[in-house]
Amino acid sequence: MTLPEVKAKTKQARKWLWVGLAAFAALQVYLVQELLAAMILFSILFVLVAVAALVIYLFDRVGQRTIEWAEPQTVKAAHAARKALDRAEEFSKKQLHRQRSETAR
To answer: Whole-number mean pLDDT of the chain?
Structure first.
């Protein structure tokens, strides 16, 4: 091989080396873009799941406080209902007519 042929082959090899490096760099940029897109999507999904968990937690806490507040009220209402039931039972045992009256013949 002569010197001009070697120079031509070296020039062609350099050209392909630069093309390969450019392709590798483009592939790396593409890979980084894909990873960033995936990270953004997973971050959004994580935030949505975290917000849903927070809402469920807050509903649970509100429910617990409501039960704590309602329990004494329920006990009072049950006591009042029991008293009303006792009065109704007592009233139903009484005769509804006068004791000294006579029945009609």
So the answer is: 85
| DSSP, res 30 | H
Pick the residue with more confidence: 37 or 6? 37
Tell me the pLDDT tens digit for each residue of 31-64: 888 988 999 999 999 999 999 999 999 999 999 9
The one-character DSSP state at 6 is H
What letters, b where the CB count within 10 A reaches 16 and e where it falls short, cover 10-45? eeeeeeeeeeeeeeeeeeeeeeeeeeeeeeeeeeee
